[in-house]
TrEMBL record:
Transmembrane segments: none annotated. It comes from Micromonospora halophytica. Belongs to the SufE family. Residues 10-132 form the Fe-S metabolism associated domain. SUPFAM superfamilies: SufE/NifU. This is Cysteine desulfuration protein SufE. Pfam families: SufE (PF02657).
Amino acid sequence: MPTKLAEIVEEFAAAPKDLVLELLLEYADVIPPLPAGTDREDLEQVPECQTAFFLRATVEPDRTVSTVFDCPPEAPTTRAFAGILAEGLTGASADEVLAVPDDLYQRMGLAQAISPLRVRGGTAILARLKRQVREQAS
């Protein structure tokens, strides 16, 4: 797992249970706006999310992964999942992204702070991101 993402996971796992949701929502503002010229049609929708959520992962020639996420501001929990990935995977290689555990959000203690449906959406975001990376890296 990339070092930055491991630090975020550790921060959540060590946080008191009553502060986990507050800590999560701090990541809702991390997602940058869509890059100029990017259209939602160029992104993959994650239908498991309760809100309209779109993403794209690109494996660059140097094998680092860049990500694009699109999620409305009215969905702060879902935006926060993407914010964690955006921040934690910055500069990560394809191999590091693929090594991220599938139960990332459970390891962070989020399963006790938010609904199972929301955790399922976050898990689906990670799964689709990893699938895109896997397809491009092979």
